[in-house]
Amino acid sequence: MPQQHGAWAMLVVPLAAGVVLAGPHPWHVLLALAWLVGYLAFQAGGLLLKARGRARYRRPVQVYGSVAALLVVALVAVRPTLAWWAAAYTPLLTVGLVSAWRRAERSWWNDAATVSAACLLAAVAHTPASVAAPPGPLALVGGSVGAWQAVGLLALYFLGTVAYVKTMIRERGNRAVLAGSLVWHVLAVPVAAVLLAADGPGRLSPTVTVPTLALFALLAARAAVVPRRWPHATPMAIGLGEIAASAALTALLVVA
After folding, report:
1. What is the dihedral of CA 176, 13, 35, 59, to 10 degrees?
2. 151 lies in the same domain as 242
3. pLDDT, tens digit, for every residue of 21-57?
4. Residue 65 and residue 86: Cα distance in Å, rounded?
5. How confident is the model over 190-223, as pLDDT tens digits?
6. CA 175/CA 193 separation, integer angstroms
7. Closest among 242, 200, 194 to 219, alpha carbons compared
8. Fewest C-beta in 10 Å: which of 16, 115, 175, 203?
9. DSSP state, residue 2
10. Which of 73, 75, 46, 51 is nearest to 61 (CA)?
């Protein structure tokens, strides 16, 4: 099983937000199963590549990979338009596997690819039964502006989380990383405002604009204060803070 406990929030939050915003549908059950088992297959495959094919990792890859493949085939059979998403996920998957082979799974570019793959799921959940060929970004999510608003807000949050956690653990004391984290969090507030102001079919409710911006402002304050005041906070404390922030953002997106 994956040891990166923080990754579970990235797996669950975009999926939950996307399903609620799109309106729950039976095919979402297959989507959730394919996504979660696919993640297990991806993690096992990464370990296999990192270990240069060591035998102990082959069985997890075979089991998770086989089940994930069956689930994906069933999912695309139920909703063929999901196949269009291969254009987005193939390069992201490639980045992850190459990072594992190079033993650089903690690199910034791999983190960005992982976050992007997770956040896009909020849009994947909106995929309609039919789209024009080739579909544009709006057609691919049934014309829902709200789907892309959710993807943008989730990406702002999770990419910021990656930077913040690095300042607390692996890059503790690195001034360049701290500065980058602060810049990202400060800029996230106006960018979130722009995203929330977008108008169109299925847009997020304007009533969540103020509390969402307040949340991003609090996250910026946290990124500035916590690494300086509590640089040796335990991973448990950091994790609890992320759970609270993830839950708050999920609640805002769900009521939107």
Report:
1. 60
2. yes
3. 999 999 999 999 999 999 999 999 999 999 988 888 8
4. 17
5. 999 999 999 999 999 999 999 999 999 999 999 9
6. 28
7. 242
8. 175
9. -
10. 46
- Which residue has 């690494």 as its token pair? 227
* Three-state DSSP state, 224: helix
- 138 domain residue, yes or no: no
Q: How confident is the model at residue 2 (pLDDT cuts 50, 70, 90)?
A: low
Print the domain residue range for 230: 144-256
Q: Is the peptide bond before 201 cis (omega within 30 degrees of 0)?
A: no
The pLDDT assigned to 97 comes to 92
Peptide bond into 134 cis (omega under 30): yes
Contacts of 50 (CB under 8 A, 6+ apart): 100, 101, 103, 105
* Same domain membership, residue 207 and residue 109: no
Domain boundary (103, 133, 163) is at: 133
User: Are residues 155 and 256 both part of a single domain?
Assistant: yes
Q: Where are the alpha helices (DSSP H) in the chain?
A: 7-22, 27-50, 58-78, 86-101, 108-119, 121-124, 137-140, 145-168, 175-197, 209-229, 235-255
User: Residue 179: CA atoms inside 13 Å, Cβ hemisphere, count?
Assistant: 3
